[in-house]
């Protein structure tokens, strides 16, 4: 309801290191990158807190499971194949964007204490 009207809050990508890095045996082999732009209205801190909570749930799932969408070489982009790596990994996260919040806001507190 409310989230539907506010719109998209983030783009999340799981990036895989190139083969040379994988061959070196270093871990982790992937990193999760997220860009967000939380709702702008100055009287909507509660909406930004809800958005931050939804974002944290999604990012925890992605970082924990390492879910990626990869394209097979001979297919067109519309035919995606979902691949999931084994559980037990927790991939690093880079979070950036416009939080439209001050450091004491609920949204920022949720994001930095997750």
What does this protein structure show overall?
By secondary structure, the chain is an alpha+beta fold. 33% of the residues lie in helices and 24% in strands. The protein has four helices and five strands; from the N terminus they run H-E-H-E-H-E-E-E-H. Helix 3 packs parallel to helix 4. The radius of gyration is 17 Å and the shape is elongated. It starts with a helix and ends with a helix. The model is unreliable at 68-87 (pLDDT under 50).
Number of strands: 5
Rough shape?
elongated
Instruction: Report the end-to-end length measured between terminal Cα atoms.
Output: 25 Å
Note poorly predicted spans.
Answer: 68-87
Strand order of the largest sheet: 1-2-5
Secondary-structure element sequence?
Answer: HEHEHEEEH
* Radius of gyration computed on alpha carbons: 17 Å
Instruction: Please tally the helical runs, counting DSSP H or I stretches of 4 or more residues.
Output: 4
Question: Could you tell me the strand content as a percent range?
Answer: 15-25%
Mean pLDDT across every amino acid position: 77
Largest sheet: 3 strands, mixed
- Category by helix and strand content: alpha+beta
Measured as a percent range, the helix fraction is 25-40%
């Amino acid at each position: 309801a409310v989230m539907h009207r506010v719109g998209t809050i983030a783009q999340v990508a799981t990036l895989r290191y190139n083969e040379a890095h994988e061959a070196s045996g270093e871990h982790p082999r992937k990193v999760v990158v997220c860009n967000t732009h939380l709702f702008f209205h100055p009287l909507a801190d509660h909406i930004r807190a809800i958005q931050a909570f939804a974002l944290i749930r999604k990012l925890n799932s992605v970082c924990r499971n390492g879910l990626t969408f990869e394209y097979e070489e001979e297919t067109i982009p519309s035919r995606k194949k979902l691949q999931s790596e084994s559980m037990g990994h927790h991939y690093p996260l880079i979070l950036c964007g416009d939080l439209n919040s001050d450091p004491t806001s609920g949204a920022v507190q949720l994001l930095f204490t997750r």
